[in-house]
Specification:
Strand order of the largest sheet: 3-4-2-7-8-1-9
Strand content: 5-15%
CATH superfamily of the largest domain: Tandem AAA-ATPase domain
Helix content: 40-55%
Number of strands: 20
Length: 714
């Protein structure tokens, strides 16, 4: 099919009819359309499966459960011989080594056939992040009708079965990406063939260790049956020994990096049908699509060279035409709808309003922030950090020092939330540590570069006159220059300037904004929003309780709020203020067990006195369902808009009956202004791949120019 024909292909509109008695819930129209599309794709010869890329919260899980129910009899009664066709394992290293031989040796093919013959046919395997494992089990139980229950196994934990025949008994097996990475080997590259001496599969670390332990096996033992390496089969995990009817990757963006073990292992799973579920198939780079093509066996784009020649290079040469070509490819294998997509003239989900609330610091907060980002020489802290960034840029080592630069940005971003997050951060800490090293070293006239190694001043001066700009220490490759080599007097001067600034500051500043009981500008704004939603007067008296009276609430229930932050310490500070104002809340962060998380979500969803849910961004932006909330507050920004969108989608999803309001809090004239610009540029890049009315952008991650912009602006 040519490009023009592919682009004219309309969105599917045909709806599948699900037989009565299979589900306990009714499908929405867009889910019936998705079911019909998936049924058609599973009958496709070229690519048996695809990418269901509906926006987060549109009910992809229910659509997949309906698909499993429709094909339940097929997956359990029609046993397929996995060795009728050629082995499915592909060369996952072709982007590293293009010199791989085209065919396998006769011995390798024999091993592959025997490996296949050991795989019993089974039902559907669902691979998902650990945090949504039990949610999948709950959905499979609650959404399936009593008379059509599925046999479901959670394959997780140390006591999981090692018998593949046991797995094959179940209609659905639920497991995690980490388990797949441990149990499913991946094919070797040409450079590893000599090391493994003909083995067909690269072993994951767990099995590679076992093989090394058994390296004393005799040659006779190795040959086994007619020269076949017994290790070819024995050192694979249970998941790899099953030939699945269907494999489903939930939150499939987990495999976005094609070189990772988890991505390669998922591609190594054996299955007739393959599905990727993700609301964000592209987060940072078009390169992420390569993993999807490989998992889906979508030829010819599984080969890195072809992927580059037909997709990546055309985009780099002509963005407009290149993205159109990519769109034509994706339309054949991907169904993508947003919450604004019209079905029957109406949007799939009630509207969402995003409010950018720009706040200003208090005088004390602004003074503290300016201390971190000052332009005057007296404020040596920022000058010290800026000098480092300029030194890295001049030496061409920004990427090598990426982590150091992000650490610099971290303090600026945290200061926008609350000065306490910087933990009483004094900008001269680094200088003081370097000075301490110098003063405890015996030689005279010593200097110290940023890496911390101590040298004679005269020696370093002579050394830097040459072309070498690396630390002289043999085990240190840090880039150094005259502007990042410090004497005792220089460091003492920096620290003295900072101390003078602190001493001249008001004592009240130290006793207020740096205390954990101080309500920062963002915390005060958050409380104002939450209190505006309460239908009753909230007590302002301090107390240890975390509930408030709910009498007088309207019949439809309270307006509940989810508060997101990237930092758990910020959530601690918000929590303190909620307690002081007697506002009911629950919390969800990465330190909690799965049981505790489930309890918190249930309480928030069902208890009318619980008005607020505090969630850390990383712990709560995947797969959660909290439609009890109709307001979302984002306390801080991240330059990857996909992560932010996923956080919002815990409330703005199928089942939501109210319009959702999102408040994004930012501080005026800070680094957050610049993060917003980068977010929009990344969003444009993703939109161009999905034909969402934006022009393309080459921005994929934080470049050197991005970092300089975040620090110093235009």
């Amino acid at each position: 099919m040519d490009l023009e024909t592919s682009l004219r292909r309309p969105q599917p509109v045909h709806e599948a009819t699900l037989p009565d008695g299979l589900l306990s819930v009714s499908l929405f129209r867009h889910q019936k359309i998705a079911l019909a599309w998936m049924l058609q794709k599973e009958n496709s010869v070229a690519c048996s499966g695809g990418i269901l890329a509906d926006a987060e919260g549109l009910g992809k899980t229910i659509s997949i459960i309906a698909l499993i129910q429709m094909h339940k009899s097929s997956s359990t009664s029609k046993l397929v011989d996995p060795c009728v066709s050629e082995a499915e394992v592909m060369d996952l290293d072709d982007n590293v080594d293009e010199g791989k031989q085209a065919g396998e040796s006769a011995e390798q093919k024999l091993i592959t056939r025997q490996f296949c013959s050991r795989k019993p046919p089974a039902g559907s395997l669902v691979v998902c992040p650990a945090r949504v494992l039990r949610q999948w089990a709950r959905e499979l139980d609650e959404k399936v009708a009593d008379g059509a229950k599925l046999e479901v196994l959670i394959y997780h934990g140390g006591n999981r079965t090692k018998d593949p025949a046991e797995l094959a008994k179940y209609d659905v097996v639920l497991t995690t990406y980490s388990i797949v990475a441990k149990e499913v080997p991946t094919k070797t590259s040409a450079e590893d063939d000599d090391k493994l001496d003909g083995d067909v599969h690269r072993l994951s670390s767990e099995f590679a260790n076992k093989k090394r332990k058994n390296s004393h096996v005799s040659k006779e033992g190795k040959k086994g049956r007619k020269g076949v390496h017994s290790s070819a089969v024995d050192y694979t995990g249970t998941l790899a020994k099953v030939h699945w009817f269907r494999v489903i990757l939930d939150e499939a963006q987990t495999i976005k990096s094609s070189s990772t073990q988890v991505s390669r292992s998922c591609c190594g799973l054996r299955a007739k049908k393959r599905w990727c579920l993700t609301g964000t198939p592209v987060q940072d780079s078009i390169d992420e699509l390569l993993s999807y093509f490989r998992f889906l066996k979508c030829e010819p784009y599984t080969k890195y060279k072809c992927f580059c020649n037909q997709i990546k290079i055309p985009i780099s040469r002509n963005e407009a035409h290149g993205y159109l070509k990519l769109l034509a490819v994706l339309k054949a294998i991907m169904l993508h709808r947003t919450k604004d997509t019209l079905i029957g003239g109406k949007p799939i989900v009630p509207s969402k309003t995003i409010n950018w609330t720009t706040l200003d610091f208090s005088a004390e907060e602004r003074a503290f922030y300016l201390k971190l980002e000052a332009e005057s020489v007296c404020d040596s802290s920022y000058m010290f950090l800026t000098t480092l960034l300029q030194a890295y840029a001049a030496a061409g080592t920004v990427k090598q020092n990426y982590a150091n630069i992000l650490a610099m940005l971290l303090h600026l971003r945290q200061a926008c939330d609350h000065p306490f997050l910087v933990n009483g951060f004094r900008s001269n800490d680094m200088q003081a540590n370097l000075l301490n090293l110098l003063e405890t070293d015996p030689p005279e006239d010593t200097v110290i570069p940023i890496c911390g190694h101590i040298y004679c001043h005269q020696c370093v001066v002579e050394y830097l006159k040459g072309k070498v700009n690396k630390c002289p220490s043999s085990d240190c490759k840090s880039q150094i220059g005259s502007d990042v080599v410090f004497t005792k007097d220089t460091l003492r001067s920096c620290i003295s300037n900072d101390d003078h600034y602190e001493c001249s500051s008001k004592n009240e500043e130290r006793s207020s904004i740096f205390q954990d009981n101080y309500a920062s500008s963002k915390i005060r704004a958050t409380l104002d929003i939450i209190q505006s939603h309460c239908r009753t007067k909230i007590s302002s008296s301090a107390g240890n309780g975390n509930t408030c009276s709910s009498s007088g609430l309207e019949a439809e229930g309270p307006i509940k709020t989810i508060v997101f932050s990237q930092w758990t310490r910020m959530l601690d500070l918000v929590e303190r203020s909620l307690n002081q104002h007697c506002i009911g809340y629950r919390r969800l962060d990465g330190s909690m067990s799965l049981v505790s998380r489930d309890w918190a979500v249930k309480e928030f969803s069902t208890d009318p006195e619980v008005m607020v849910m505090l969630i850390s961004l990383k712990a709560g932006n995947l797969g959660l369902n909290m439609v009890a909330a109709s307001h979302v507050i984002l306390l801080d920004l991240w330059w990857n808009p996909a992560a932010v969108d996923q956080a919002i989608d815990v409330a703005h999803r199928i089942g939501q009956t109210r319009p959702v309001t999102v408040s994004k809090l930012t501080i005026k004239d800070t680094v957050e202004d610049r993060i917003f610009i980068l977010q929009e540029e990344k969003r444009a890049m993703v939109a161009s791949a999905f034909d969402e009315g934006q022009s393309g952008s080459s921005v994929t991650s934080l470049t050197e120019e991005d970092l300089e912009y975040l620090f110093m602006g235009a």
